[in-house]
Amino acid sequence: MNVYAILPAAGLGTRMAADKPKQFLTLQGEPILIHTLRAFAAVARMNGIIVAVQPHEIEHTQALAAEFGFASRVRVVAGGDNRQESVSNGLAALSAAADDIVLVHDAVRPLIDAATIERTIDAVIQHGAAIVGLPAVDTIKQVERTAHGALVSATIPREYVVLAQTPQGFRYGLLSKALADANAEGFIGTDEASVVERAGHPVAVVAGSQHNFKVTQPGDIELAEFYLSQRR
Ligand code: C5P
């Protein structure tokens, strides 16, 4: 049984208001994507890593992977117009067996640690599908969007809620079938688990951490720098 990772990194990162996509912004002098790659490369069970980037960034990303010593373990492919397409392209570049394991991880969650990746792999071995999720600490409200702003329609007991992070891991056969069906039926999810849930397969949850946040908006770089400095 082999284990692979797909890192979707083809987003434009427009919420960041920076001069380049956030996966190429630097943390402690190194691109965010490199921090993420390092965490996955540190997992001994990892047989290969696929990074999906915008077509014009393929060469630059290959050069970066080589510069930081990951060239032999990383393949760079073209991403798509949405995250699901980027992941589907990554999956298409893999020749895997049905019971191999594929982890999908946002390239812009650079503070993921090897132990959480290992726990996700173990949960996939046990359940076939698993995501990293963070228990909700705030009270969760369901809202209706109206012309006058959001109106609360219900309170969702927070013990029923986790915030979905990545990695999200699946048996290759399960993920490729669920994605092919979703693509054929025009369903676009914001994560892979939603596609697998839709196929009727249970998805286990592994405990996440606030450190594993998605670099999304201005200020997040400073927060990531702070968490990284605490690690040393
Ligand atoms: O857009 P968001 O911040 O949720 O993106 C999560 C991850 O998906 C990022 O790593 C981003 O680069 C990736 N992505 C992608 N292809 C797209 C859009 C987003 O690989 N078309």
Large-scale geometry:
globular
> Any idea of the CATH topology?
Spore Coat Polysaccharide Biosynthesis Protein SpsA, Chain A
Q: How are helices and strands ordered from N to C? A: EEEHEHEHEHEEEEHHEH
The major sheet is characterized as: 7 strands, mixed
Biggest sheet strand line-up: 5-4-1-6-10-7-11
Under the CATH scheme, the architecture is Alpha-Beta Complex
Total of domains: 1
What does this 3D model show about the protein?
Strands 5-4-1-6-10-7-11 form a 7-stranded mixed sheet, sandwiched between helices. It is globular, with a radius of gyration of 18 Å. By secondary structure, it is of the alpha/beta class. The mean pLDDT is 96. It has helices at residues 32-41, 58-67, 83-92, 114-127, 172-185, 192-198, 220-231, and strands spanning 3-8, 26-27, 30-31, 46-53, 74-78, 101-104, 129-135, 140-146, 149-156, 162-171, 204-207. The chain has 7 helices and 11 strands. The chain has one domain (3-231): Spore Coat Polysaccharide Biosynthesis Protein SpsA, Chain A, CATH 3.90.550.10. The two termini are 34 Å apart. Cytidine-5'-monophosphate is lined by residues 8-11, 23, 52, 79-83, 86, 106-108, 214, 216. Residues 8-11, 23, 52, 79-83, 86, 106-108, 214, 216 line the site of cytidine-5'-monophosphate.
